[in-house]
Design brief:
fatty acid metabolism, alpha/beta, 14% strand, mitochondrion, ClpP/crotonase-like_dom_sf, binds ligand LGD76KDA
């Protein structure tokens, strides 16, 4: 039925490095241009981890030029995913904090494996950073304003049952059924004529995407100012050190 599977593979935690973001955009573009494909299942090849989100090492201790290049790549992937003409279904087979959650929220439908460890949410505040307005918009468009307001301020990571209850995911299924469920949901979405579904998707999502498109450069400057602050760099270093020391 013209369905591709994109399996993220950037061990150990599928962090969204500049290279991953760039390759993801290229793969999506190829699929968009190949008319034999109508849908994509986005999933992970790293056991237990869908994606650890943006690569913190790309946002810490680097040059301004690097931050700008990285942020443009983050914007680009979000725009491509959010406005894709393809049906995108996230088969979430692991934990998905922050950028990992955002990636799934850009999809048309989310199937999450029923494993209490597989938390998802926008936990930026717990790192001492702030989810940008377009991350916030994506969450609001999925779960509504009040749930998003509370989840964003508290940096909540929802276990599967809670994620389902608040509407962050559409279905929670046993782990070994995530892929087959994504495929049967895909069949339902592909039963709708492409042009009608695509125009409707655009109607729902373009106003949100346009807000970023209209101020992409300003958004990058905003990010640069924010991420270069000593206090923010310090928060990120402390958080990364904590992650690294967990093992030791
Ligand atoms: C005034 C208002 C202004 C507003 C302006 C706004 C402007 C923008 C502001 C900036 C916004 C930036 C937005 C960011 C969104 C993000 O996505 S930030 C990333 C958030 N991610 C996380 O919090 C997840 C962190 N990771 C984990 O919790 C765990 O690693 C895991 C649960 C995913 C997996 O656990 P486990 O299997 O036990 O592995 P670990 O031992 O923890 O990790 C292994 C290895 O990977 C490294 N690592 C983990 N996550 C990341 C990451 N996101 N980036 C880079 N590296 C990561 C970890 O350090 C370990 O490394 P070592 O092997 O020890 O070297």
């Amino acid at each position: 039925m013209g369905v591709a599977v994109i399996k993220l593979k950037n061990p150990p935690v599928n962090s969204l490095s500049l290279e991953v973001l760039t390759e993801f955009v290229i793969s999506l573009e190829k699929l968009e241009n190949d008319k034999t494909f109508r849908g994509v299942i986005v999933t992970s090849d790293c056991p237990g981890i869908f994606s650890a989100g943006l690569d913190l090492t790309e946002m810490c201790g680097k040059s301004q030029a690097h931050y700008a290049e990285y942020w443009r790549a983050v914007q680009e992937l979000w725009l491509r995913l959010y406005l894709s003409n393809l049906v995108l279904i996230a088969a979430i087979n692991g934990v998905s904090p922050a950028g990992g959650c955002l990636m799934s929220l850009t999809c048309d439908y989310r199937v999450l494996a029923d494993n209490p460890k597989y938390n998802m949410g926008l936990n930026e505040t717990l790192l001492g950073i702030v989810a940008p307005s377009w991350f916030k918009d994506t969450l609001v468009n999925t779960v509504g304003h009040r749930t998003a307001e509370r989840a964003l301020q508290l940096g909540l990571l929802f276990p599967p049952a809670e994620a389902l209850r608040v509407g962050m995911v559409d279905q929670v299924v046993p782990e070994d059924q995530v892929h087959s469920t994504a495929l049967s949901v895909m069949a339902q979405w592909l039963a709708v004529p492409d042009h009608a579904r695509q125009l409707t998707k655009n109607l729902m999502r373009k106003p949100t995407a346009d807000r970023l498109v209209k101020q992409r450069d300003a958004d990058i400057q905003y990010f640069l100012r924010f991420i270069s602050r000593d206090s923010i760099q310090k928060s990120l270093r402390v958080y990364l050190d904590k992650l690294r020391q967990k093992k030791g």
